[in-house]
Amino acid sequence: MPAFSCPVLERCLRLHIDTAAADGIVLQLPVNDADALYNLYDRAIVLLERALWNSGLSQPLLDDYHALFVELEAHIMAAGDDFRHRFVVVVPVADRPQQLGACLQSLIGMLQAFQYGRGAAMLSESLSVVIADDSREQAHIAENRLIATATEQQGLPVTYFGLQEQQALLASITQDERQALRNVIGEAAVEAFYHKGASVMRNITSLLLHRMAQQDEDLLFLFVDSDEQFHACTDPSRKVFTTNYFYHIDRIFRQGNVQVLTGKVVGDPPVSPAVMAATLLDDAVCFLEELAALDATATCSFHGCSAATVDAAYHDMAGLFGFTPSDKPFRFQCGLAGMHNHAACLAGFAGRLNGFFDGEHPTRMTAYRHTDVEAGVSAARTVYTGNYVLSAAALQYFIPFAGLGLRMAGPVLGRLLQSGIGEAFVAANLPFSHTRTLRQSGSAEFRTGIDRSSALVDLSGEFERQFFGDVMLFTVIELVAEAYPVVMPDAARVSDVVRATQSRLREAYAANQSRLLQRLVALEALLESPDCWWSVVAEFADTRALLEQFIASLHANFDLQANAFRLLDDEMHCNERHRAIVEALLAYQADRESWCRLLA
Q1: Contact 361, 276 (CB under 8 A)
Q2: Residue 190 lies in a domain
Q3: Which residues pair with 129 in a beta bridge?
Q4: Inter-residue contact 397 to 417 (CB < 8 Å)
Q5: 107 inside domain
Q6: How many CB atoms lie within 10 A of CB 236?
Q7: pTM over 0.90, yes/no
Q8: Domain with 61 in it
């Protein structure tokens, strides 16, 4: 067999990577054994990725990085033996057609850049998409169907799994089976079979995925949220494809006994605004204090600020989750382009605050930090439900307690996986770019638990789901330490743990509320101070109005008498949540048995 021709590989090694490791690869060329050749590409890719990020994403290096993968794909295609896993990308969506379209276009763009799967014309052999639609609005459902058709026309096979398709699948299950799985797949009525909740939707979709796996046990199932995109670059002016996700995921599953792999997200935080208002206020007060000492007409000086790199820096109660809370405010990074002054900068900041209630954090976006993907694979404890991969065998693990509709389902699932499959549950540095809102409107298309029907945004629905989701998570952590669910505690023990956890978290939420309200008072004082230029000049009235609206919504949600906190202190409501959580925890083993019987 003649030696393989590798001009791009040789050019990349000589042009971009002047290291002994690169020289070692060059010395092994040419080769005439396919496995040896693939190994050289794998080694070179690690070096080139490091050089790419060290260069600040230099365009020539980025072009050669893409070309290197295209050359590798050509060799695999010529060999006629694609040894890799086949993928199903699962995108649950509820009334977000614009974000769904952007997500799938980024997937296609990424595939075209790296030519994964032997080129766009042959993608059907390597990769397909499932759109799991939980929309209510008929116009959005129609748009999602059109997006599915348009995606297929670009060479990517799509299974549209809409409300009718879901009901047809569930109709194949007996009524007894559906009743036994009500905690897993919910009990939505036919006439209101939409907005069933992200966890219920994922579990119903997993029944479809199981049928696919019966036809091809080598499939891997990647769950992606509709507000994510297939790149890790958080510069909104430069969306470049920097990560060949399927290449890395395939290698991780081939090289180890992995059943579940989770990544993270960069960009907007993956948590609720209910638990990040205090950190935003810390930064907002700092920002206005600094602005007050600057000339409104001077050139904006809030550019080039360092990005947030502290884990969970956006979370008001990061310490609860084992992270070190940030002890300093983050400086606002102005996103305006072109020449502008401090008055325009403040207006831009005020204009972004509306997006906070949909999950943006104007001062604490998560930046990508490059590390060697496969060398950094580590044991995991949390599933990021917008970025995780299941093998066919792992479909036995549904999203637990889905019928309760609580937040924190991913961390809860993660703790159960950690205790159940141990080293087969791993994490890797493969984040997606997360964008909560549409740039044109500054708000999300749809977000459950957020009520914008009046002038003041009402977070109480999501806030309540967040608090009791935290109760569920920390209860599960304590019970898992006692060998749950293998050793099932009695009802009294579960009830005691839930009660104690709820009490402890209520104190933590109260402490955070107190801190938040103090910072809110400080922000109001700055906004109203006659010594500050924005309060005395009429032309800044619109900016002040936006800030006042934001402050009013925060008061409505975090004051002592706010709806959300009244719910947390309502004895009848808390007793009902307590009862439901205890019953769900006690039923988990029976739910698992019913689920596995159904799959079998």
Answers
A1: yes
A2: no
A3: 89, 158
A4: yes
A5: no
A6: 11
A7: yes
A8: 7-79
